[in-house]
């Protein structure tokens, strides 16, 4: 009976430690997302396409995108939150649009934003050589 109590105690401790590690992993992935991101030409090669940027700070996300053919930039603010502990996120934009995101994607560790209605994907990378355009109102 004494052994059963000891084994039960050890089992409970191991479960508690396992849960704590998963929570820490989620915190670590959140820290990685903070910063400025630049759009890439494709989710495979990761080459910069400096027409759109994201800025993430804590749970706030801001987007700045050049409007095709006009040379003007529009910004949008939203909230990003973890959807699970596997690097999947949900984004609720201020205009009511909802989007999914994943990090890391591929060897280049890109941040992908997925349109749930069309399943189209845009990928972003952290690249300080391509800072946001001065017209972006972050």
TrEMBL record:
Source domain of life: Bacteria
The protein's name: Lipocalin-like domain-containing protein
